[in-house]
Amino acid sequence: MSDTAGRTGRPFGGYLRRHDHEADAELTSVGPGTPCGDYLRRFWQPVALSDQLGELPLAVRMLGEDLVLFRTKGGDAGLLERHCSHRGTSLEYGIVTEWGLRCCYHGWLYGTDGALLETPNHPGSRLAGQFYHPAYPLRETKGILFAYMGPPDSVPAFPEFDTCVEPGNDLVPFSLHYPCNWLQVLENTQDPVHSVFLHTRISGVQFAPSWGELPELDYVETPLGMMNVNMRRWKSSVWLRTTEVIFPNINQAGALYETGEQEKTLARISLTRWMRPCDDTGTAIIGWRHFNDRVDAGLGDRDQVGLGKIDFVGQTQARSYEEMQRVPGDFEAIASQRPIAIHALENLCASDKGVAMLRRLLRRQIRALRDGKTAAPPPYPDSGAISTFTQDTVREIPARDEAERDRELLRAVGAAGMRSLLDSAGRPPDERARLLDEALQHFSNAT
Ligand code: FES
Ligand SMILES: [Fe+2]
Prior knowledge:
The chain is built from 10 helices and 20 strands. It is α+β, with helices and mostly antiparallel strands. The protein folds into 2 domains: 46-152, Rieske [2Fe-2S] iron-sulphur domain (Rieske Iron-sulfur Protein, 3-layer Sandwich), CATH 2.102.10; 162-445, CATH 3.90.380.10. A hairpin with a 2-residue loop joins strand 14 and strand 15.
């Protein structure tokens, strides 16, 4: 019979392969009552774009729950269990009123907090005023509606990331659907080696030629989650790129079109995105595309960012099948790992260190919560911006003669940069940039 590493153990052994491998439910099952679902429910999660919510209710699926999102004529948004508490009719067919959402079948009226306000089919009933339909609190910010679906007495502060409050930043919301499990979408962000192959050598240059250079790599825990540290030699420069996961399911990404040629320090990000599960086999990627004059200046297209679209290649299933086959991008690579990637069938190698680390750290968080200990979520402060770690820095640093010595140099630059980024957390952006500059200065001086 087969094993995982050798799979079938012999040539032309397809018949011998096993078909009984299951998904890693601890990390991939998100429904109510599952350990991972409980963990994800402890954080604010994006529901939909504000623009999606017009005068009609919107059916949404989140964490395996069928819900309905609506905005009253008074302007307040609500998120309710989709099926009416009377006899189960979907409230997506409900009527929005000044105060709430009225079921189309017999007219029960619900407030945004779930309060049953009227039962017109049952005059004199005392249910109204005492009964609450399941509801979740919402928060609307920068064009996205977020919900908290965890225990009502443990609502966390809403995270304000430094990268989302920096001046001169135009945040354009977007929402993409991936027909697969959330974890594999998030894992992609800690698999920087795919940028070399998928995005450059295999599909042609999708971002910049510099992405095709194999980096030296490191992976490190941060106070918010983890990040990968990429050190690339590109011509006479060293390009230091960090890409983070903020627990539980957020990613920030640096410049999309970084060429690695112009000197810069602590250039921040192009994307903030939540990989928010719809259910075990569907994921909404919801977040903001960042437009400013510091990152990818003039290279983005805000008109191509929004519901079901984003302004760079290979992120949706909107292309023809032939094009997807000829020039695959992230969507094809990620969604085709199966509806839920089966970890038992993988053969992880050295380049998957970040993926393995992300799984290990998430499992630790999920188990801590399950076992009644406090999980160690990001220490979001109640107010003020949270220092994050994604950035690009490019330094003119001449190459050392021998390849191995140059790789040593790259690793030293990466270690110094990573340490500086971690140590400067909590300080103002200008100071963090100055400290990073100082930390790397001697590499530029030593020729
Ligand atoms: S099913 Fe909704 S009011 Fe009767
Ligand atoms: Fe990618």
